[in-house]
Amino acid sequence: MTSESGKTIDQGHGPADLASIWGTPLTAIHCTQCERLHLVAGPDVPARCPYCAQASITVEPIYPRGESPEMLVPYAVSERNLDTILGRWAQGVPFRPADMDTRALSGRAARYMIPVWLVDGRVLGVWRADIGFDYQAVSYQDRYREGAGWQSRQVQETRTRWEPRMGQVDRRYENLPTPALDGHQQLMKRLGSFDLSQRAEYRPEHVQQSVISAPSRTPEAARPEAEAALARACESDCLQAAGADHIRDFALEAAFGELHWTLLLLPAYVTWYREGEHDWPVMVNGQNGRVSGVKRASTKKATTVSLVLGGIALLLFVLGGSLALLGAVFPPGGAAGAVLLVLGVVTAIGAPIPAIAAWTHNGRSELEDWL
User: Fold this and answer.
1) CA distance 245 to 233
2) Cβ of 150: how many Cβ atoms within 10 Å?
3) If we measure between CA atoms, which residue out of 29, 17, 46 comes closest to residue 279?
4) What SS3 class is residue 224?
5) pLDDT > 90: percent of the chain
6) pLDDT digits (tens, 9 = 90+) for 205-227
């Protein structure tokens, strides 16, 4: 069995073990498109990947990991609120695809739970850093004004006094979040932050009718990020203990011990819509309602409008040209023909605009989602 990171995992857990670990029957599914592994609660296996929305799902007979969740952040956004949230997100899309319908999006929405490690640990060592203290300094600026000559003005500005400091640290930190998934930072950038203080004890009924993104990083693999999180917490404490305003060039020589790992689940929703020949995933933060997804305009609708405008322009040219020729024997017809020709030119110039607008919007939307 190969994990998301491409590493082979030897120890496996069968379906019975999976149910005993999580307290409820789960089915492991694998996406051949994005290579993510998910656990599905309930009898129905989704036809498409809950993460990338592509129909590339295979059922895994063996789930290769044995971690069980201990905590979760409860859903604050209910299914009843999704209509409003997704409708507000879809507003302002030119030539909105028919499939980007509020009811269709909320009807496809499924609960999606994201794993995160919470790490407790002890830091024992020494630290060095430059500590900065802000102070107010008074200076004078000379300015020349016509008719008044040179004038001096008192200016107060904030400056920082830096002092080297060092000390010892022996402290224990608790519940520092550490990635349990490859690509965790990108996922959190899409969904935004979660208030981890609003967590509750895990119970099997919490994941009923849900899809769970299976952890792809073991505690051993996540240890460097855990140690970095402990070092950042230590840096913050050193700044606070010094009563300073800034800290720079922080260096820590320490041992990180007594590590305890807790698997926490974060709440989200996933849904999708179709535009063209592609299915586009949409994610909703289940705690604060933030929506992430590419908001595509329908290129088919935009192209149709451009073709219709082009057809109208052609018709105006034909009628205008015919009336212009008729003007040789019937002058009023020539004047009407000239007007139609001008309208035809204006319509022809505007005909490509819908297609260009949709193309531009799609490029900007994809770039914003990537950034």
Assistant:
1) 16
2) 8
3) 46
4) helix
5) 54
6) 888 889 999 998 999 999 999 99
